[in-house]
Amino acid sequence: VTVVTQNIDNLHQTAGSSDVIELHGNGTRWRTFETAEPADATQISMDAEGIQRDPQGRMVRPDIVLYGEMLDEEAMERAAAAIGAADMLVVIGTSLAVYPAASFVHYFKGPYAVLLNRTPVPQSLSFQLAVQTDAGAFLADVWQEYFEK
Question: pTM of the entire structure?
Answer without folding.
Answer: 0.86
